[in-house]
Write a structure and sequence with these properties.
Layout (H helix, E strand, L loop, with lengths): L2 E5 L8 H8 L5 E4 L12 H8 L6 E4 H6 L8 E3 L1 H10 L2 E5 L1
Parallel strand pairs: 1-2, 1-5, 2-3, 3-4
């Protein structure tokens, strides 16, 4: 049962991203939004974690938040709000890491 995990908090303030990556199943996807997109900053430990997690085709970032923070990423696929909704419909469950 694939789950879409949604993280919106900065990866530098707590352990949400670490916990999520430990629990991520092979069919699960991860969407970064809000301050969580800072995890994609070039040279950061969090970017190295995401690269090591093998999330090809399963890592997404809300485009509006990437643009607002001037972050670009080749690792995460940028999605708009309609694509975000489509992701929620594609997965059986959505887990927001509040």
């Amino acid at each position: 049962m694939p789950t879409l995990h949604v993280i919106s908090h900065s990866p530098f303030g707590d352990e949400r991203l670490d916990s999520c990556l430990r629990l991520l199943g092979n069919d699960d996807a991860l969407l970064l939004c809000g301050d969580a997109v800072y995890a994609l900053r070039v040279g950061s430990d969090t970017l190295r974690q995401l690269q090591a997690a093998g999330l090809e085709q399963r890592l997404f970032a809300l485009d509006e938040d990437l643009q607002a923070r001037a972050i670009t990423s080749e690792l995460a696929k940028a999605v708009d709000y309609p694509a975000f909704v489509a992701l929620t419909l594609h997965h059986d469950k959505v887990n927001s890491w509040l």
